[in-house]
Amino acid sequence: MLLGIVLLGACSRPQAPELSQGTLLPSAKPLLEFELIDHQGRPFTPGNLQGRWSFAFFGYTHCPDVCPTSLSMLAQMQRKLEKDAALNTLPQLLFFSVDPQRDTPQLLAEFVPYFHSSVIGVTGDQQQILKLTRQLGILYAKAEGSGSEDYLVDHSAAIILFDPDGKLHALFGVPHDPTLIANDFMAIKHYYEELQ
Amino acid sequence: MKRFLMALALSASSWLAVADSGILVEDAWVREAPPSARMLAAYMIIRNSSDRDRVLVDVESPQFSHVMLHKSEVVDGVARMLHQDEILVPAQGSVVLEPGSYHLMMPAPETHLSAGDTVDFTLTFANGDNVQVQAEVRKKP
Ligand SMILES: [Cu+2]
Fold it and tell me: Which residue of A41, B75, B99, B103 could cross-link B41, Cys pair, CB 3.0 to 4.6 Å?
C-alpha cells in the first residue's frame, strides 16, 4: 500500500532528465518576432519553429573548420535519430548565417544540403538576424583585423534546441558529440511530453 | 670505379642526412566541402624526432593560390579563427592539426576537390627545411 503511494508519487511528477551535453532552460523562452529568409527564398519567422523540434547552429559558409564540423555533427545526430523507431517526426536542422553580406539564399542552397538533405539554411537582413540572436544570447562579430574581402566572423559555438511551441528550450555547449546529443534530445522530448 | 661508387654512396648518404630534418607527417587530409564552399581546411599530424624544436613558417601548394596557418578556438563559448605566423613542433614531440584546432586554410580552387583526390603541400620550416606532403581529400564523417 505504502509502496503503491510512493510509486504513484514518482509517476505523477516526472523527473527532469540528467543530460550529458545539454542544459535545459529553467522555463522555455518564447521568441519575439523576426523575419528571415530560408535557402529557397521563402520567409522564415517564429512560425517556422512551431509544431516540431528544431536544432539550430549559427555560422557562415566561408568558415571551413568549425562550421562544417558542427553541421556534420548535426547530420550524424540526425542519422542516429532516423534509426530510432520511437521517433515519428525528426527534428528540423537549421543553419542560421551570421554573415548575411556573403551568405545569400542561393549560396546557402548550394551549401547546407551537402551535410544532410534536411538542413535548412536561413539568412536575411542583419537587423533581423540580430533580433533573433540577441534573444538567444548568440554572439557574433566580424573578426578584428579581417580584410574587407576575406574577413572572418567570430560566433557562438553553441547548438540551440527549440521545442514544438517554438520556444528556446535547451542549449548544447562545445564539444558536441552526435550520440550524446541524440540521447539528450530523446530524454528532453520524453520529459516534455510527460509534462504535457 | 669502386672509388667512384663509394663517393656516390657517400654523397647520397650525406644528401639524405641533410634532407632528413626529423620531420614526419602523417594522416594528412583535406575536408571535402560542398561545391559552393569558398574556403577549405587541411589537417595532419607533424612529428619531430629531432632534438631541436622545429617551427613551421610557411605552406605552399600548386593547387591553391595561398595556404594560411590557422587555429580555431572556443573562448567563453565563442568560436574564432586566429591567423598563426608559425606553428611550433617541439623537439621529440608533435603537433596535431585537427578540426577545431590548428589547421591549414585555403581558398577553394576553381575545380572542385572530391573525396579521393590528392593535394600536394610543401611545408617550410624556419631552419629552411622543406617537407613534401600529399594529403587525401576525405568526406567526414
Ligand atoms: Cu581557418
Answer: B103
